[in-house]
Amino acid sequence: MSIERAARRAARILVLDPDGAVFLQLHDDPEVGLHWVLPGGGLNPGEDALAGALRETVEETGWTDVVPGPALWTWEHDYTRKGVPTRQHEVVFLGAAPRRDPVGDLAESFRLDGIMTCRWWTPAELEDCPDVLWPPSLVALMDDLHRHGPPDQPIDLGYLPNLP
């Protein structure tokens, strides 16, 4: 039996500090459980993916100075958003920013977006993370990015089902 899912477009930014650490947010979803995800979220109707990723990043971090780079990856995944089974198509962009905590009063944004906490992860810490990472291949994707630089065109990771 398949579940009818609402389609949603989203965009995120892989925010890296000068030393290669990545900024992630912890969410809890009834379908997925605890998982760490890049800042970003749903696109408004007609909104460009990069503009949406930057807008969402400002809303979730208070940072207005993230330097955007090229689109890195696209992927689709399932989760439950505010009680609605959803299939989300995401574009992930590269971004650069200094390492710091989010700024401003973000309590309402965190509550609305279901963000439990956030933190910077070094590549070594990320390799040892016992929690689910989104996208699931984030460690390998970041390693490939470090070794080869950004791709000429975004890499389509396809549909990635949730692990049991």
Automatic annotation (TrEMBL):
Its cofactor is Mg(2+). The keyword Cell inner membrane does not apply. Keywords: Hydrolase, Magnesium. This is NUDIX domain-containing protein. The keyword Hydrolase applies. It comes from the Bacteria. PANTHER family: GDP-MANNOSE MANNOSYL HYDROLASE (PTHR43046). Gene3D superfamilies: Nucleoside Triphosphate Pyrophosphohydrolase. InterPro entries: NUDIX_hydrolase-like_dom_sf, NUDIX_hydrolase_CS, NUDIX_hydrolase_dom. Residues 6-142 form the Nudix hydrolase domain.
